[in-house]
Design goal:
10 strands; globular; eight-stranded parallel β-barrel; alpha/beta; single chain; about 35% helix
Length: about 400
């Protein structure tokens, strides 16, 4: 994470000198000054805590917010705002907020959840000496598959295999291995739920038919829609189930709309062509966040670097969103084929470290209002390359990462 130190403005005023006052006038001035100082102190004490509580987002760390108001006597304010990386160059860390500590995680894969033995083996394969504290577990993945034994009705029909691991078994194996468990839940990139229940997907405006993203012959699929109460309730049930099972954090990914063509928008509901569609997406995220907080867990949002570069930023609305921590997923294998927009083709060549550096420079302006952790992934990118890229981004001021 980076922190942007805007500095402290100092306002100077000319001191007024009062001469020629009588002794009685001087005494009156002193008494009035004492009363004013006491009154200001009382008012400040009375309103300071309500102001802090009002500006603090739900789920922020209480101790950390207190440190923003009154730094400890043995730690200078300047030192706490400057990243210790970059060889002491004093790089301002604009994505390291005061209420967010370092997040150091590794991600296991869906195949690692086939059994307790495969999960234990995956944990043993993790690199040592990298200060990995958390393990991210993909419980609901892109496309809609479920990789644990769920009691949610639609989830039971979407399980990857009839027999999957129980949540408490997953949590126990991770904690027994010395890590903290984190659940990863894909939200609206779900092509299975609308097949099970057609009301969960996008419907055409005039004929109320199910919309799919391409012709059936070309592999067209329906998508879960945040405008559907069925879809929102389903995802909320999933995050409720996993956040109450002992996972310390829940990372929700794929808060995305399909890449609609104009021909799609012409037949779909008009609100999908409106910028206000961001409000529907963030409202769903805020609901999930509230559910997760009630279970004494914390929610992060994962976004795709490629999606951001293409301009799909519906979920990143800091004025609407109650979640203030974002994990930026840079899929180094995916971007190797280029990222295409309507007007530009972005090419990413060279080593993994070069691709990661280029991508983060292109998208980091979209993340200025958030705490940021960087996920470095890619199914065919080896661990040494991921760690090299991580070390480079540390030099750029980022301090929280997910590897894998």
């Amino acid at each position: 994470m980076k922190f942007r130190n805007k500095g402290r403005k100092i306002y100077k005023t000319k001191e007024k000198n009062y001469y020629g006052k009588s002794p009685l006038g001087k005494a009156f001035s002193v008494g009035l000054s004492v009363l004013l100082i006491g009154g200001i102190g009382f008012i400040g004490y009375s309103v300071a805590e309500p102001i802090v509580n009002y500006t603090k987002k739900k789920g922020d760390d209480k101790a950390a917010v207190s440190s923003e108001v009154l730094p400890s006597s043995d730690e200078s304010t300047t030192d706490s705002l400057i990243s210790p990386t970059n060889g002491g160059a004093g790089l301002a860390n604009s994505h390291q907020k005061m209420n967010f500590g370092t997040y150091s995680a590794a991600a296991v894969k869906e195949g690692d959840l086939m059994s307790g033995d495969t999960l234990k083996l995956a944990l043993k394969r993790l690199p040592t000496g990298q200060d990995i504290e958390y393990i991210e577990v993909p419980l609901k993945v892109k496309g809609g598959r479920i990789y644990y034994s769920s009691n949610v009705y639609y989830a039971m029909q979407s399980q990857a295999f009839p027999e999957m691991m129980e949540l408490d078994e997953i949590v126990d194996i991770i904690t027994d291995s010395g890590y903290k468990p984190v659940a990863v839940v894909s939200t609206f990139n779900d092509n299975l739920l609308p097949v099970i229940d057609g009301e969960a997907g996008y419907r055409t405006a005039d004929t109320d038919e199910q919309w799919i993203d391409n012709d059936y012959e070309a592999g067209g699929k329906p998508w879960a829609s945040p405008f559907s109460q069925v879809a929102v309730n389903y995802v909320n049930s999933i995050v409720d189930e996993v956040s109450s099972a002992g996972f310390e954090k829940v990372v929700c990914s794929d808060f995305v709309y399909p890449h609609f063509r104009q021909s799609d928008l012409d037949i779909l509901a008009p609100e999908l062509s409106d910028q206000s569609r961001s409000m529907t997406m963030t409202a769903a995220a805020n609901l999930f966040n509230s559910t997760i907080l009630q279970n004494e867990s914390a929610m992060y949002i994962e976004v795709s670097a490629s999606e951001l570069l293409q301009g799909y930023t519906d979920i990143l609305q800091p004025m609407l969103l109650n979640v203030n921590t974002v994990i930026l997923n840079i899929d180094l294998e995916e971007i190797s084929y280029g990222v295409y927009t309507e007007s530009t083709v972005y090419e990413f060549s060279g080593k993994a470290v070069d691709k990661a550096e280029k991508m983060i420079k292109l998208v980091e302006s979209d993340l200025n209002e958030f705490n940021v952790a960087v996920r470095l992934s890619g199914s065919n990118v080896n661990m040494s390359e991921l760690l090299e890229a991580r070390d480079k981004l540390k030099e750029m001021g980022y301090s929280s990462f997910v590897i894998g």
